Structure formats: structure tokens, C-alpha cells
Amino acid sequence: MKVVQILPELNSGGVERGTLEVAAHLVRQGHEAIVISHGGRLVEKLEISGARHFAMPVHRKSITTLRYVRALRSLLTELNPDIVHVRSRVPAWIAWLAWRRMDPAKRPRFVSTVHGFYSVNAYSKIMTRGERVIAVSNSVRDYIIKNYPATAQDHIRVIHRGASPQEFPRGHRPEEGWLTEWRRNHPQLEGKKILLLPGRITRWKGHDHFIELIAQLRKRGLAVHGLVLGETHPRKQAYAVELKARCAEMGVAEDITFLGHRSDVRDVMAVADVVFSLSLEPEAFGRVSLEAASLGRPVIGYAHGGVAEQLEVLYPQGLVPVGDVPQLVETTIAVLQHPGEPAEVRPPFTLEAMCQATEAVYQELLRP
């Protein structure tokens, strides 16, 4: 097969990583993998895997981006792929408009993945127009059926995002050199229980609740330190400043460290005592919480969306009603006292299961 995946950019995030993982899997299976995006720091990694990248500005949320429909149609005609797989709304519109004017007898099959709980409108409906529509969790499948009832249910395929037990092995310990540098750079963690909140800095990710959690635990005399790991988008700088002011206001400025973007997330999770997922809106899947569980780290998360689906299977004692900070505090204390380990990550939550299921969707469409 020749498969083209289209997404806005290749910088960071679950959509981007999933795109690279599927591309690498296809190459390993002897297929040809191509990605079209505006580019980004993950392009090099994509090309090292054996996939090809074509740069096109399909990332701008602007009506002017539609001028690339013709250029994309020409590129698809030249590449002559078997499958076009769209993973985001703007590129999906451009790809669909290009695809529908191609010869139906010769054009590729059209696949879409619904990666999130998008706002419900005509703009988002494009993600349900695939000849097969992949939902990244049962929660997302329910969202599609409820909000886009015209979508043929027998065209929807639930494929959970997956963690690699090889990349995130249970009991992973960072190298001694990394640990030495970590201790040197973060002496404030010595003798403390480390509580980690991974995720980009944005208002719905629950950073306010994490700050309040640390404040409540410190009031109870617990020796804890919070780590916030994730990049801040240029448009979210004011919110990042607001969070740090909130830390000072609650008296925990010395008890929470903002790490920013890091490429060693696995090692940071491995040294954490508890990893949190406190999104106030449901995560469509929540890959980081799954990877933490794969490492054997306790995970505490709000009980909705894809994270709830994971924790119900892997670590049910970590589930907390959404937004219930008092219960969050009590659950954290209980987990710190008796952590236990998450269950072993198995299909459908493994990376290999995700890639094989995605390949199977492509094969299904190409079957005579």
C-alpha cells in the first residue's frame, strides 16, 4: 500500500506522535508511508523511519488556506496513493475538497480519525466524512454517534491510542548520568514525594486544581513537590504567568516547579511518585496517562473521557470525580500511602495493537 497521512504540523502532541508511529509501522510492513504537513521538529524523526514528508501550509485556520486545494489535488494525483488519512479539521477540509473532484475510479480511499471532542458544527463534521472513521476511544465513538447521527455506525472503528511496553517498560530507571544531572538541577526534590502533571499549559488541563492539591497537601504537613511538565504556546503566556502568581498567592511557589517542554518525559515520569491527569474537559484518549501506567507509575485522573476508560482497567483506585478537589486530595494521600502498581498494559492499549488495527482499516477499504 501507499498511504498518505495529512495533519497541520509535526512539532509535538498525541496526533503527531500517532502519525509517526503509524508511518513507521507501515514502512516496517513493507508499505510506503507519506506525510503531508506544514513541517516541524518531528520531520527528521519521520524521515529516519523511512517515511517521506511533503511540506504544504495546511495548518492555518483561515479561509485563504482553501487556495491549496488544487495544489493538493495535483500532489495526490502525482503520488497516486491507495489511502488518504486525515487527522485534523483544516487539512481534512482541504483534502476532502481535493479528493471529491478526483476520478472516483482512480482516487484513493478516504479515512479520517476523530482525535478529540471538537465543537459540534459544520466545520467539525468534516472529520466524520471518511469512508472509515476512526475513533480514538469509546467516548469519542459515543460523541460521534450522538452529535453526527448521519454518520454510518458501521463505518466507525474504535482504535485506542497505544503505549509501547518496549519504549515505556515497567520499572524503567533513568541512566545514572541523567539521574545525577536531575538531582543537581532540582535539589528541591530531595526527600519529597514527586507529583507530576504533564501536559501543555492551557486552561482546561487542570493546573489550577493541581496547585490547590499541592497547597492542601502541604497544609497537612506532607513532604511533596509538584512538577508541571509541558510547553506554553505563545498565545498562552499570560495564563502561564497567571498560574505562577496563583502559586505565590497560595504559598506554594517553592513547592511547584514548571519544567517547560522536555524531550525526556519518560525519565521524568519514571522518577515521579504519582502522575496526574486533571483535564476539566474529557480527554479523547490521554496518551500520557497510559504511558505512565505502562512504566508502572500510579496514575490519578478525573473520571471521564479516554482516561477513565484506561484507569477503569489499569488503576481504578486512581479515579476521581471530575473537579472534586477534596476527593482528589484524599485519593492522592491514599495512593501515596499504598501506591500499588497499575495492571500490565495489554491490547487494545498497546502501540502494536493500534498500528495493526489502523493497517487493518486500510486493508479493509482496499479489499475487492
* CATH level-4 homologous superfamily of the largest domain: Glycogen Phosphorylase B
Structural class of the helix and strand makeup?
Answer: alpha/beta
CATH architecture of the largest domain: 3-Layer(aba) Sandwich
How many structural domains?
2
Given as residue ranges, the uncertain stretches (5+ residues, pLDDT < 50) are none
Summarize the structure.
The protein is of the alpha/beta class and 368 residues long.
Question: What would your notes on this structure say?
Answer:
This protein is an alpha/beta fold. The protein folds into 2 domains: 2-162 and 350-366, 3-Layer(aba) Sandwich (Rossmann fold); 176-337, Rossmann fold (3-Layer(aba) Sandwich). It is built from 14 helices and 13 strands. It has helices spanning 14-28, 43-48, 69-79, 89-100, 122-125, 138-147, 176-185, 207-219, 237-249, 265-271, 287-294, 305-314, 325-337, 351-366, and strands at 2-6, 32-37, 52-55, 83-86, 109-114, 132-135, 156-158, 193-198, 224-229, 256-260, 274-277, 299-302, 319-320. The strands form 2 sheets. A 7-stranded parallel sheet has the order 3-2-1-4-5-6-7, with helices on both faces. α4 links the parallel β4 (83-86) and β5 (109-114). It is elongated. It starts with a strand and ends with a helix.
